[in-house]
Amino acid sequence: MLGSRRPWAVAIATATTAVWLSLSPLTAAAADARTQLKAFVSQVNSATGKFTQTTTGPQGGAQRAQSGDFAFQRPGKFKWAVSQPYEQLVISDGQQLFQYDPDLAQVTTRQVDQAIGTSPAAILFGSGDLEQAFEVTPLPARDGLEWLRAKPRNADAGFAQVDIGLQNNLPSRVELLDSFGQTTRVDLSQIQSNPSLPANEFRFVPPAGVDVVKM
């Protein structure tokens, strides 16, 4: 797993997310998590919202919580902007993924297909067949949410599993277990489905004077 300063979007994009709006005739009670997730991938092309996240180590110690805003547009464009307790940005224009850390004055870049591929980012931001890359199984309902678990078919994915909890056809929580036994919990809120996004929403130009590292 990446360092504690790195947001959940980096973890899902490198090492290694879910329906935003009710777009099928099924009610929330009738649609299981798998049905909702498939509808999300096929019918929701873009979304915006807010997130909070915490990471807990295998011994139970939790890192400081992070919060911020996110946006995505299929296929492969997304922005994950941490605002608290420090600023950090992970953004993809569909071709390149940029991670900008203002405190370090550093930008790292990599190809989106290498970053997302078979990672949990493919669940939220991709447009392919989920079950080609993941073994998907239902989980018992808990905390008022319907759950499924996605395990990567690729043994080198860098994470063990990702659990997605849905309520009223909206993704409410994502829990990712990485290869080091750390669990990252992300709570999503204030989600807007298929909004009108600015043309430059996912455009990023590294600020002058920062180090740019290509991965």
UniProtKB/TrEMBL annotation:
Gene: lolA
Signal peptide interval: 1-30
Pfam families: LolA
Taxonomic source organism: Bordetella genomosp. 4
Protein name as it appears in the record: Outer-membrane lipoprotein carrier protein
InterPro entries with a match to the protein in the record: LolA/LolB/LppX, OM_lipoprot_carrier_LolA-like, OM_lipoprot_carrier_LolA_Pbac
Family stated for the protein in its record: Belongs to the LolA family.
Lineage: Bacteria, Pseudomonadati, Pseudomonadota, Betaproteobacteria, Burkholderiales
Keyword vocabulary terms for this entry: Chaperone, Lipoprotein, Periplasm, Protein transport, Signal, Transport
Record NCBIfam families: lolA, PRK00031.1-3
Compartments, as annotated in UniProt: Periplasm
GO cellular component assignments: outer membrane-bounded periplasmic space
Coiled-coil intervals: none
